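$ fold --in a.seq
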Amino acid sequence: MTRGVLIVLEGIDGSGKTTLSKNLAAAIAATGREVVLTREPTDGPYGRQIRAIAAQGRDGVTADEELALFMADRKEHVAQVVLPALERGAVVVQDRSYFSTVAYQGERGLDRAELLAMGEQVAPRPDVLLVVDLPAEDAVARIHAARDHGQDDFEQVDALARIRQVFLGFAGAQVVDARGTPAETLAQAMALVRPALGE
């Protein structure tokens, strides 16, 4: 059986990455391929802890403790979702992977080269890495327009601007300009993933 295709979407908060992930999965499924849409952090026990920390603040949670949660969540996710889907020939569309850990935990002071090496030991390298790109100021404006509560601490403009540059610097990353409409963004993404899908 032919191995499946792993497509990972990365980008700063507010870039439209999650919307694009859903739209891309639907567009690929419409071609008749089996598609598994997934995300990190997951909805499993470790992923729920990570989301709670992001929403409520990190008081008392060290960068290393947070990293341990990300790694545990990723190991479980790869073993239970990603690898089985790839082995049966499915297309996996994944909203965030270890590249986000490199970008965000690196912002907390952890060594980005070490984080990248750790991620590559645990998770398969994607066949297509899409960086959904938006200037930090635009991303924060989108976040605030979409939410009626205060920002979580991942969403400061200066930090997002630095993190954006990390995403843009990953080897093999293909950039999707997210300043247009969802339909325009999807068209760009489909053009970039078609070769990996054999189209």
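$ fold --in b.seq
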Amino acid sequence: MESDVFNPSHELRAAVLSCLSAFLASVSLFFALFNAYFNQSYLLSGLEFAYFLVSVYVYWRARQSKVRIAVSVAYIYFLVLIVAVGTYISVFSSALVVWTCLFPVINYLLLGRRYGLLSTGCVLLIQTLVISLKIHQVNHVIDYRMLMNLSGVYLSLWILSHIYEVRRKFSEQSLERMAARDALTGIFNRHALLHHFENQRKVLSNTSLSVLILDLDYFKKVNDQYGHNTGDKVLIQAANLLRDLLPNHNAYRIGGEEFCITLNNVDVDKAVHIAEYLRKKFANHTFHVSGYSIQLTASIGVCECAAELTLEDVLIAADVELYRAKQNGRNQVMVCGSYENEPEQEALSTA
């Protein structure tokens, strides 16, 4: 997928890290030169120049969206190190300690709520220890009013960043649910199928994965005879029936009266038995909708997935079997063998 709506946080954080690393690369290079030539603070200058190089690398990785959270954590704490060292060796009048207030925002933007909360607390603890050491060991005179104001700003930004991240994550999860669910039936949609299928193939690369495509027979007659509103209610009940019958597997509405079921760790033989179980349940089920009692049958195509096949390949193969079931009289299960061995296709006709 060009854009993964199910994980927008990753793209957002990559974009933030890209802009932030570009900005910090410029700032760190400037201060590295400034501290070397004007302050003769070679330790701080060396750290800042090293951070410039790291920022360039992180920027390059972020532009490719290849930055893991461990890299973000290391990048943040390198900056924490620079600020802590600068706070300790510089006079307070230089106001270098003010950079501490940047960390609540950076932590939550790059690390999320949980790690952002932990990291922001750690930064506060580190800077508190550094300032305490500076006061007691160096006997440095400090304006405590400045420290109180600095602490107030830090805590305020911490609270605001936390609230923002909590609300952002809640909105993101709401959008994820909307993007993944069929608006009518409430089960997963085709977009979710693509996302889940790719994840299942990665996680379950050494196990079987089978796909069923189920289509309600003569559903058009329901719409023609009882109206589309009644037809929609039948689809909702059909989706609920699928969820009740297969609670451990995902069901998707992929178009009209057509549903897809993915069966993790299920080979083709077991998938056929599950499909036959579904077919019988639908044949014996009565849909009570708008005062009508409606009976429908289902035709099902079954396909076991090979590792090299795309979702489109699998759906086409299962759809071919579904079409054969329709052509053969409906209310049937048709199955194609594993694509790895390409056995001869067989049909399961029902009495």
